[in-house]
Design goal:
mainly beta, five-stranded antiparallel β-sheet, three-stranded antiparallel β-sheet, 1 helix, 10 strands
């Protein structure tokens, strides 16, 4: 069984590498289910429909140039490209695929936290289109 330590995920949003400011990421790939049950069938049958995926990213907030807040604020209201790689220290391959998709940046949590806590934000972006999974290329 192949298992891995999930602490080297690469995350780029709008070509800006924010990997060192991400504490957690979840890519949820979902597809509509279209019923194709016909007369005489003894059970429901379904086929894959359109993709309806999302990605949830937990960021450590940072106001520096080309960092989290500036990157997200510059993209407000626009659709930008996001790229994920399971292990950014390893080449793209069949066991380390590159995920590319578009997200609409329509929400941020610029101020979050209490006294003595790190400023963070957890954002769920709707993927705007299909997710491409590649076994070659560069992060």
């Amino acid at each position: 069984m192949a298992v891995f330590l999930n602490n080297k995920v690469g995350v780029k949003i709008n070509s800006v590498d924010l990997s060192d400011h991400v504490t957690s990421i979840t890519l949820n790939r979902n597809f509509d289910e279209l019923e194709v049950t016909a007369m005489g069938d003894t059970a429901h049958k379904f086929v894959k429909g359109l993709e309806a995926s999302s990605v949830t990213i937990s960021f450590l907030n940072d106001t520096a140039t080309a960092s989290v807040l500036q990157t997200l604020q510059a993209a407000w209201g626009t659709t930008v490209t996001a790229v994920l790689l399971q292990d950014k220290n390893t080449a793209v391959s069949a066991t380390n695929p590159l995920y590319t998709f578009s997200i609409l940046v329509n929400k941020t949590t610029d101020i979050n936290g209490a006294v003595g806590e790190l400023a963070t934000q957890d954002i769920t972006f709707t993927i705007n289109g299909a997710t491409t999974v590649a076994t070659t290329g560069t992060f």
